[in-house]
Amino acid sequence: MAGYNSISLLLRVFLGRDPDDALLEEISALSRPEEMRKKLRQLASVSNAFPELEMAYEIRALREAARSGTVRLVIGAASTEFADWVPTNQSTLDLLKPHQWCAWLEQGGVSAILAEHVWEHLTVDQGRVAIRTCREFLSPGGRLRIAVPDGYFRDPNYIDYVSTGRYPGHLTLYNIDILSELLRDEGFQVRPLEFFDKSGNFHERFWSPQNGAVMRSRHCDPRNPGGRLRFTSLIVYGVKPSDFPISYKFTLGEATVPQLGWSALNPLEFLSLGGESLADEYTPCGKALTIVTEHWIDKLSADERTLAFKNYTTF
Fold first, then answer.
1. Residue closest to 132 by CA, chosen among 278, 238, 291
2. What does CATH list as the number for 50-239?
3. Distance from C-alpha of 262 to C-alpha of 184, rounded to nearest angstrom
4. Cα–Cα distance between 158 and 162 in angstroms, integer?
């Protein structure tokens, strides 16, 4: 084993061959174990050779989220990772196999689910089953955010690109009417966030990336420079109804650390939006009972304080 250090030995085990110098240098330059693990998981050669490794990380993340009291899932995440969200893939959580979810999650124990460009890989009937799976595991007031290619997008080149039979794996081209009906049929309250209507008119309402970031969207996709719409998604927000009003608790400001059962509000959103828009996004089944700040108000101008207190009362 002369000539091997611990990192090169590890890579040799994972890859089944000696690592090339560039990869060895890249991994060796990382200082934290979690950074090394993330990089290894992103290597196709590793994930293909050891799919169990990816599952192990996802299962551990699911267990940690369950212990924290807040489970927010990204379905079909691939290599996507967001802070405070658990990235999962089909091998761990298959939308068409709810019994598989029971191994890691409690029914009614998930607060939010995000699926960006997943449902188009399902038939309409499969999409209905998938929505039913999400509803089963979401808590009352829990949210399902679905983003898919928009079948009413006004550019024929876009439609040609995303259509079934053209883009690999696409089985359904949804529009706002089809997707909304599916969600309502399965008992969800529907809030369209970003979509074209049948006449080709674009509509949007405020949505926060904190509640599920959609990268292929008007404001996040770099293909939409200067507000020109070249690639957007149909984004719909389904809320599982609650039999009783929910009292939401929030922290506001970077100095305030969220506790169990509390959610963090974005200070910029809180100041730039009206209370009604905030309530629609953050409190769909009730109202904000408590908002805690720590030395945040002190840093605001007089006008900002007036706006903040106004939003407190309407939110």
1. 238
2. 3.40.50
3. 28
4. 6
